[in-house]
Amino acid sequence: QVQLVESGGGLVQAGGSLRLSCAASGSILKINTMGWYRQGPGKERELVATITSGGTTDYADSEKGRFTISRDNGKNTVSLQMNSLKPEDTAVYYCNARVVTTTLQWYDVWGQGTQVTVSS
User: Fold this and answer.
1) End-to-end Cα spacing for the chain
2) pLDDT tens track for 34-89
3) Which residues contact 69 (CB under 8 A, 6 or more apart)?
4) What is the number of other CB atoms lying within 10 angstroms of the CB of residue 79?
5) pLDDT in tens, 13-28
6) 105: which residues sit within 8 A by CB, 6+ positions away?
7) Distance between CA 20 and CA 44 in Å, rounded?
8) How confident is the model at residue 63, as a pLDDT?
9) In this structure, are residues 2 and 24 in contact, taking their beta carbons and an 8 Å threshold?
10) CA distances from 36 to 61, 75, 104, 108 (A)
C-alpha cells in the first residue's frame, strides 16, 4: 500500500510564494516519475510539473520561470517552489507518483490534494 501526502498549501497574496511538499510512503522499491497537477474551479486536472528519477523536469508553459520542481530520492519526497503567484494559480494541487512496489507491481498514485489560494 502506497500513499502520498501533500502539505504546504494556503492563502497567499498575488506575487507571493509558497512551497508545496509531498511525501510518499509504503512498500516502495522505486519511484519513476513524480509530479504536481492542479485542478482549478470549473477546470479539469492539468499538469503543473514533473520530474523523473534522474532529475529531468517538464513544466507547463504557464509555470515556466515561476515554479521549480525538485525531489529527494532518499526521502521519497517531491517539492514545488512557487514564486510570483497569480490569482489564476488558485487550485487544489495534487501530488502524483508512478511507483514500483517491492512486489514489482506498479501504480499511478495520487495524493488527496492541498488547496492553494492566491488573492489579488
Assistant:
1) 41
2) 999 999 999 999 999 999 999 999 999 888 799 999 999 899 999 999 999 999 99
3) 35, 36, 48, 49, 50, 51, 57, 59, 78, 79, 80, 81
4) 21
5) 999 999 999 999 999 9
6) none
7) 20
8) 82
9) yes
10) 14, 17, 24, 13
Euclidean distance between CA atoms 100 and 96, whole angstroms:
13
Determine how many CB atoms are found less than 10 A away from the CB of residue 111: 20
**Alpha helices by DSSP H, 16-66:** none
Cell of 107: 501504480
CB atoms within 10 A of CB 43: 9
Q: How many Cα atoms within 13 Å fall on the side-chain side of residue 108?
A: 3
Q: Return the amino acid letter for 7.
A: S
- Residue among 54, 36, 53 nearest 45 (CA): 36
Q: What is the pLDDT of residue 62?
A: 81
Task: Find, among 48, 52, 1, the residue nearest to 24 by Cα.
Answer: 1
In angstroms, rounded to a whole number, what is the distance separating the alpha carbons of residues 116 and 74? 27
